[in-house]
Amino acid sequence: MVTTICLSSRTSFVSTAAIDIAEDKLGRDLGDVLGLPHRLDLIVQKDAGKSFTKAKPDIVVHATSSSLKQVYSLIIECIRSGTNVVSTCEERVYPYQKNKAIARRLGRLAEKHGVSVLGTGINPGFLMDTLPITVTGTCLDVKHVKITRMTDSSKRRIPYQEKIGTGLSQQEFKKKIGKEITGHVGLNSSIAMIADSLGWMLDDMIELPPEPVIAKRIMKTAYTTVEEGLVAGLKSRAYGIVDDKKAIELEFVSHAGVDEEYDMVEIDGVPKIRLKIEGGVHGDVGTSAMTVNSILKVMNAPPGLHTMNRLLIPSDTPLELNRYVR
Amino acid sequence: MVTTICLSSRTSFVSTAAIDIAEDKLGRDLGDVLGLPHRLDLIVQKDAGKSFTKAKPDIVVHATSSSLKQVYSLIIECIRSGTNVVSTCEERVYPYQKNKAIARRLGRLAEKHGVSVLGTGINPGFLMDTLPITVTGTCLDVKHVKITRMTDSSKRRIPYQEKIGTGLSQQEFKKKIGKEITGHVGLNSSIAMIADSLGWMLDDMIELPPEPVIAKRIMKTAYTTVEEGLVAGLKSRAYGIVDDKKAIELEFVSHAGVDEEYDMVEIDGVPKIRLKIEGGVHGDVGTSAMTVNSILKVMNAPPGLHTMNRLLIPSDTPLELNRYVR
Fold first, then answer.
1. Which of residues 133-152 of A touch B (CB under 8 A)?
2. CB contact, 8 Å: B301 with chain A?
3. Are residues A130 and B313, on separate chains, in Cβ contact within 8 Å?
4. Does residue A298 belong to the interface with chain B, where contact is any CB pair within 8 Å?
5. Which of B306, B61, B10, B304 is nearest to A197 (CA)?
6. % of residues, chain A, pLDDT over 90
7. pLDDT score, position B319
8. Which of B130, B323, B324 sits opposite A313 (nearest CB)?
9. How far apart are CA A269 and CA B1, in angstroms?
10. Whether A47 contacts A77, CB under 8 Å
11. Nearest-CA neighbor of B135 among A290, A258, A49, A109?
12. Which band of pLDDT confidence, cut at 50, 70 and 90, is reported for residue A41?
């Protein structure tokens, strides 16, 4: 829902429509839904097609499901109405590996209708793909890439803590895998994007099911108190296999009581690189920023389906890309 | 000289000409100049125009002077011969602030001849511009950017240590400022590029003359022994002023006996970011890599004068950009 996207203070876009299917949002003013002190004179509707015809937006900022198959028809509707799209759907970020046929159809349709579409976010979209890829620019050779994201879940919203199994027993956690507990979605997008940029043919891609992280001592979170022996959070791991070796390793860890939060990129190559973002980047703020900051780049890109690694470098983009230079 | 560029093991480019004016290289086989165990059957010549006519290269990898005015005529010759150019000339990396007229002329000529030209390197070109700009993509707002490069000069080649004043007295150092001792060249390029990407109008740009770093104890380098009280290296600082405040701060430090080498990006914004490359990136290897890895991106870019912040994200680029995707 576009409500989750904060408009960057550095730009001034005008919202012309608000679309959602959630019953508790339908029919309400968007300003009210966002908790703003004023109305925006935009009523939340569920019919995307009608909204586009009436509002004629330049771009749709899409943030609903993580599954490409689920959002596919909505993206098609955007494209057919001649509207660019920037989306946080994790499987949209790099769809050519897992959803090749869908990606090609979207790409051809976007080209036909003269619009550009992009998937982005803090991850996939930046931390475990765009950033490490960018750093390999300083390398004459790359043998292995490992990215680790270590976050303290006790600081996050309650739905997030539920989603990672906080406070469950190990058996309860196991039952929910693949249902309420998905682990980090989209690691395959990041692996495929890295392989694309480095010219590596992947023999295989392995995404392990989420693994529980068990509390070694009692700990409190905003959500619950986690007793020793219960689930404090989870770990998601995925690998890209090249020449039978794990050439790309992604590890996402989120639990209560993490010693230190950080995002780490480790490249084994010439030279070796060890890059650390101390404290890590906040997921929600980062995703909003990556999305809003991509808007102008998507609108200026040639028609088609774009991926972060084949677009201009990310930046906290000003209102007009060309204002200060030429 | 193209000899300073190591060809990435991940690509296979064919060198078709070698150009230099250095007397000790002229007339020699390039393989011999590079210290390779075999000849390359390329004789180093000084006439660029004749070489281009004969060899008809797709791109020239240019690495001679740091001054845009000095390399200008050579770049013009490349463009007029219909050859793309990737250059390590620091003032070419972002020339629109300090050398606007030259930049515009180069750009128009490049467009007229259907070629692309780019300035890049480890810095300017990546560490103090492209990398921090990329990280601002995760920010909803940026107030201040500070980049620090801390390097141990005792590990570097002897000409480098001489160039930063190692072993001189403070008076000797002061006399050489602006002559043999220039400090870090191109910090203005980085500042201007950051301002461009963030949409900041610079009120002013301040580049301080290089400051000596004085040895607090005796220390040995490959070059010399530095007594206490003598120059161990230098510090270069530059600022971008926006609304009368130092909005962009660059600090390059290189001396013997540095406690810890690193490259650091600190962004004060929403969110705050603190990114550290532990050990820092080696200057020579990094510059070679950035240059070689930019070759295909320059060749695939539309005609004109390009800058790193308006190009595809850097990466350890494969031979063909499109091989693995479509």
1. 133-142
2. no
3. yes
4. no
5. B10
6. 62
7. 53
8. B130
9. 25
10. no
11. A290
12. confident
Sequence-ordered list of residues with C-beta below 8 angstroms from that of A106, at least 6 positions apart, any chain? A72, A75, A76, A79, A95, A117, A305
A120, pLDDT greater than 60: yes
Q: Does A196 touch chain B (CB under 8 A)?
A: yes
Residue A192 to chain B, least CA–CA distance (Å): 10
Question: How much is the pLDDT for B164?
Answer: 94
For the stretch A134-170, pLDDT in tens is 999 999 999 999 999 999 998 888 888 999 999 999 9
Pairing of strands B84-87, B59-62: parallel
Nearest CA in chain B to A104: B326
Instruction: Look up residue B218 and give its two tokens.
Output: 């005796």
How confident is residue A127, by pLDDT bands cut at 50, 70 and 90?
very high
Residues in chain A: 326
Q: Which amino acid is at B184?
A: H
Confidence at residue A319, expressed as pLDDT on a 0 to 100 scale: 53
Backbone region of residue B121 per phi and psi (left: phi > 0; alpha: psi in -120 to 50; beta: other values): left
Q: Does residue B175 sit at the A interface (CB-CB below 8 Å)?
A: no
Query: A81 with A50: CB under 8 angstroms?
Result: no
B222 touches chain A (CB under 8 A): no
Residues of A in contact with B309 (CB under 8 A): 312-313, 315
Interface contact A271-B292, CB threshold 8 A: no
CB neighbour list of residue A105: distance below 8 Å, 6 or more residues apart = none
CB contact under 8 A, B136 and A316: yes
The secondary structure of A192-241 as a DSSP string is: HHHHHHHTPPPSEEEEPPPEEEE-SS-EE-SS-EEPTTSEEEEEEEEEEE
- Contact criterion met (CB < 8 Å) for A270 and B279: no
Local structure of B28: helix, strand or coil? coil
Q: Report helix, strand or coil for A253.
A: strand
pLDDT, average across residues A276-282: 96
Consecutive 10-residue averages of pLDDT for chain B (326 residues) = 38 79 91 88 86 84 80 89 91 84 93 96 96 96 97 87 94 95 93 94 95 93 87 97 96 94 97 97 91 91 93 76 38
User: Are B313 and A285 in contact (CB < 8 Å)?
Assistant: no
Cβ of B8 within 8 Å of Cβ of A277? The answer is no
Dump pLDDT digits (tens) for A156-209.
Answer: 888 889 999 999 999 999 999 999 999 999 999 999 999 999 999 999 999 999
A 62-101 residues with CB < 8 A to B: 96
B131 touches chain A (CB under 8 A): yes
Rounded to an integer, the average pLDDT of A91-113 is 89
Tokens linked to A164: 């990672």
User: Residue A138: its chain B contacts at CB < 8 A?
Assistant: 122, 126, 281, 285-286, 289-290, 314
Chains A, B: CB pairs < 8 Å: 202
pTM of the model as a whole? 0.92
